[in-house]
Amino acid sequence: MDFPTLLQVLDSTVRLATPLLLACLAGLFSERSGIYDIGLEGKMLAAAFCSAATAAVTGSVWLGLLAGIGGSMALAGLHGLSAITFRGNQLISGVAINFLAAGLTVVLAQDWFHQGGRTPSLLGGARFEAIALPFAETLRPVPVLGPVYAELISGHTLLVYVAALLVPASWWVLYRTRFGLRLRAVGENPEAVDTAGVSVQATRYAAVAICGLLCGLAGAYLATALQAGFSRDMTAGRGYIALAALIFAKWRPWQALGATLLFGLLQAVALRYQNIELGGVGLPVQVMDALPYILTVVILAGFVGRAIPPRAGGEPYVKER
Amino acid sequence: MSQMPKWADLVLIPLISLIVAALLSALVILGIGEDPVAAVKMMVTGALGSTYAWGYTLYYATNFIFTGLAVAVAFHARLFNIGGEGQATLGGLGVALVCLALPWPHWALALPVAALGAALFGAAWAAIPAWLQARRGSHIVITTIMFNFIAASLLNYLLVNVLRPTGSMDPSTARFADGTHLPTLHDLLAPLGIAFSKAVPANISFLLALAACVAVWMLIWRSRLGYEIRALGHSEPAAIYAGIRPVRTVMWAMLISGALAGLMAVNTVMGEAERLVLNSVEGAGFIGIAVALMGRNHPAGVFLAAILFGFLYQGGAELALWTDIPRELIVVIQALVILFTGALDNMVRMPLERLFLSLRKGRA
Amino acid sequence: MAADAGTGTSSAPAIELRCISKAFGPVRANRDISLVVRRGTIHGIVGENGAGKSTLMSILYGFYKADAGEILIGGRPVQIGDSQDAIRAGIGMVFQHFKLVEPFTVLENVILGTEDGALLKPSLAKARGTLRQLAADYELEVDPDARIEDLGVGMRQRVEILKALYRQADILILDEPTGVLTPAEADHLFRILENLKSQGKTIILITHKLREIMAATDTVSVMRRGEMTATLRTADTSPAELAELMVGRKVLLRIDKSPARPGRRVLEIEKLCVTDAQGIARLSDVSLSVRAGEILGIAGVAGNGQSHLLEVLGGMRPATGHVRIDGKELDLSGPGCDGRSRRAAGIAHVPEDRQREGLIMPFHAWEDSVFGYHSDPALQSAPGLMDNARIRSRAGDQMARFDVRPPNPDLAAQSFSGGNQQKLVLAREIERNPDLLLVGQPTRGVDIGAIEFIHRRILELRDAGKAVLLVSVELDEILGLSDRIAVMCGGRIMGERLASDTDETELGLMMAGMKGKAA
Questions:
Q1: C286: domain range?
Q2: Which parts pass through the membrane (chain A) (predicted)?
Q3: How confident is the model at residue A183 (pLDDT cuts 50, 70, 90)?
Q4: Would A173 be classed as within a structural domain?
Q5: Which of C169, C190, C222 corresponds to the end of one domain?
Q6: Same domain, C414 and C494
Q7: Which pLDDT score is estimated for A176?
């Protein structure tokens, strides 16, 4: 593989890792507060549809972004309602939300746009444009570092940079603020938080809302930056890969960045090559597709360091005397 | 805590949940500018109005019985098997390998072996997540989701690179020999003097599904294994106290669950397509979750819920054919049913309990 | 100690409750409770399980809202709607089950919920200083940077007390604080409480251990069936009087029984060792024997290996060493070590926690009536199939013989009261006519009437020539039922005594880890 190709693959890794990273951080906030979320996929899908539909109608990517966040947060609210207020099964609620999004997006897209469950292609101001960082062109001739800066670091859409900044921001919120302390505490032992006079429900709702917000960014990125419009099931399992990355990262922000970059790389490679020669053995593309899932199972099995989820995860909190 | 009679818990709550889901779906239909009443009429005619319609409804219901039972058996051990999709995919592979392996002279010989193949492959695909849950404590929900994707990739690879006949562009196996052709409901009912549409996929697998309902009932409520599965599901420390081996019991529950999901492939792959294609499961594994939740994990409930979803599925297909309402509306209804019977259960239950409490007080 | 010690001039009582009532559906958990606790005193509240102590304290801490009544703190009426209100009113609570976040440090746990601002840094720094001060004032040293999961029970309790003090609590409520402490740790706790009292704090101590009430409190209230039956100066009362007030009639602190006639050795335990998943030794070189026709009681503070011993004997946990039943060696690991093979060897087991282990709560009583024995061929109608009709009819008879109320085998186990649930378990285990009966906490959470019934049944089994191994944290129960008593501390046997030759004081010393002289 020559240098320009490597750069291209890495560039596409960054693009593909971005929605995974946003969704993974979304799941991190939710699960750290003790609310399992297998509905990342559905929230992303809803956001992708809402953002693409709004952007298509209004021609404004910003309104699209807002609508995407709104759609995702509405589903997050539904998850909160069933998981927090009505103490239902969080896994089942997540499954339901995934189906709700999968069905509703296509039904509405068909009704509004009559294009077989797609939105119209987004043009111009209805999409996020690539941002050229300062001096990208001037520095390009510098050997190695120049192209890396110009191709790999510069030239992405706004949401890519936002996602990157969200990693340290999430870390800081979780470990350096009062809100983060309480959020982690409700995920570990909600009784301790409750008896300390802090509302478990409010803290968890806040976490679920952040999850909705970040999934909204992820979905809007898919429909208005990575691609130009919504198509049915366009998340294509990314919500589940993000979930896998979250486990891989052991529910930590920096590790989440690493895990999503790894899974993004796998996707980028699978996209570019049909078969890969590794030490004389042909690796079919399907292996690349399946690798994130296989790696997650290996991690879950505890063969490569154990992934211990937040202790109160999945358990509805019932106030006791 | 039981302020409600048992029948209310078993019948009323799923029923109310269903009505709420139906009302919300009607709102969606209204919202996209169609007439819900006309839609329901069309669905009833399209799914129940003729033997042709019934032939499709029962065909879909057969799938959902198998996947619903699969989810229900695992639920009794407090295991949430979302892997029905992958297990059914592998079941299809088992059926195809059996059907292609020998020049089967008659379906009566092929069916038991194919069913065995489907069950074994489905069970095998459930075995790894089961073992990881039982031995390593890996959460089975996550592992079974992962195994769905791995199954899809595996089947994709096998169909494209291994099983595809030379020269074919289609990612599918060769057609099965005529000797594996299963009798349809038309064939089965004709000797009884009942005229059933010839052009429908419903076949003898429906009877197999009915038998599976009875077998699961026996397993859960009459057998020693079922007793142990239920006990383990309610309390693991208690199970250990009673000398029930958790690892073995989890394995059995999941193997049976996977086998049931795999059996679905007898209906789709052998009974309908007569070759193995990509994505022959078409989400039936997930519908099994809704069916099990709605059927309260009881085989009789699963049967009724499966027929209901068969109706929705076939009715939805008719709607998509004749109106502007896409098939995905059924996915919405399915989501609402899962939501109300599984996750927002308490939203329906709490007011109902209050109602029964005040009724009882009123009587006293 | 005088009841007015330390009070001085302040006239308003620290806490005053006026006619507090609380009902849960038809159950009236608290009825017209009135109570006055003076500032700078230690006030005890005693009562049986279900007497309403916890409900009352939950009302004080804002978990429940009283249906009627008034709460006055320092003479002023207050509304306590949630924990935040309670904290603001100066009430701190140390729960029986600690409310700590295990992966967090001590410091993080202390500031949780009472941080000074949106950022943690200043709060942590301030708490560090305050903690140092509190440690110096009250003998409450804890490493502020230690993680809770690395601390022992006694330390965790200190963190809970520190949490309350950090929130400037003037009134400290402790719910069964010594249940998991060794006597030495308990003594230290009482020293801390004395310290707190002398600094003007008010302390409410909830317990069912009369000894602690007598030793530590200035005044004491007794609760029974939701009512406050008496409030007394501790110096003016006696354990016997308190016990009588708790139960509502004269209690026989001694259980009537005939002398034991020990026969052959049924159970022999030799050098039994258990190490748990964290690598901590839970049982070390335990050797014991139980003869036919005798009850061996195991005394000890909860968590000193008694549970592990029962679990090993019941086949629930692997171990090393030797266990023989009538001379036959039992498998202590591998496939032959499970509840089923133990039952086959003639061991019946009434587990310590009937709701988590002994019964499947949603099962019908008839299904639970064979739990553990469900693979008995006599209960199968065909290989692998249960004979449900037969099991149901047998269950009905069994429930009648053990006076389970109501004797309806079709009810779910969870709809019976604690005492009747225990009778279900006892019926199942005793009617198998075992050679050895293991019993853990036979009367925990059981009403007085059922206690006597259960004790009688255990004694009858002994008199029928069976061996009984009894584990209980209630010293009275151990002393009353057992013929011989072995004391455990830190996973070791500290010594054995004949029940007729020992008393609470000696056993208490041994439970604290002091080896008695050889029996």
A1: 257-346+436-446+466-519
A2: 90-109, 158-175, 205-230, 251-270
A3: very high
A4: yes
A5: C169
A6: no
A7: 95
CA distance C480 to C295: 11
User: Do C230 and C289 belong to one domain?
Assistant: no
pLDDT in tens, B315-343: 989 988 888 888 888 889 889 988 988 88
pLDDT-derived band of residue A30, with 50, 70 and 90 as boundaries? very high
Residues 101-140 of C with CB under 8 A from A: 101-104, 108-109, 111-115, 117-121, 123
- Please tell me whether residues C341 and C382 are part of one structural domain: no
ipTM: 0.90
CATH number at residue C281: 3.40.50.300
Residues A274-281 have a mean pLDDT of 66
Domains of chain B by range and CATH?
A: 39-354 (1.10.3470)
Rounded to an integer, what distance in angstroms lies between the CA atom of residue B220 and that of residue C162? 52
- Nearest-CA distance B335 → chain C (Å): 29
Question: How many domains does chain A fold into?
Answer: 1
For residue C477, the number of C-alpha atoms closer than 13 Å in the C-beta half-sphere is 24
In the DSSP assignment, the letter for residue A103 is: H
Q: What is the structure's pLDDT at C8?
A: 40
Output the six-digit token pair for B269. 């792959």
Q: Concatenated DSSP letters for B249-305? A: HHHHHHHHHHHHHHHHHIIIIIIIISS-BTT-STTHHHHHHHHHHHTTT-HHHHHHH
| Same domain (yes/no): C206, C266 | no
Query: What is the model's pTM?
Result: 0.86
CB B337 within 8 A of CB B1: no
Segment 111-130 of chain A within 8 Å of chain B by CB: 111, 114, 117
Nearest to B26 by CA among B16, B15, B37: B37
Looking at beta carbons, which residues of chain C come within 8 Å of B244? 339
Same domain for C308 and C203, yes or no, is no
- Provide φ and ψ at C237, rounded to 5°: -125, 180
B326 interaction partners in chain A (CB closer than 8 Å): 106-107, 110, 117
> Angle B51-B57-B60 (CA atoms, 0-180°, nearest 5)?
140
Let me know whether C85 and C221 are in one domain: yes
Residue A11's domain comprises: 3-237
Give chain C's domain count: 4
Q: Is the pLDDT of residue B216 over 80?
A: yes
Please report whether residue A302 resides in a domain. no
pLDDT of residue C9: 42
Question: Per this entry, what is the length of chain B?
Answer: 364
In contact, C225 and C452? CB cutoff 8 Å: no
* Chain C residues near residue B248 by CB distance under 8 angstroms: none
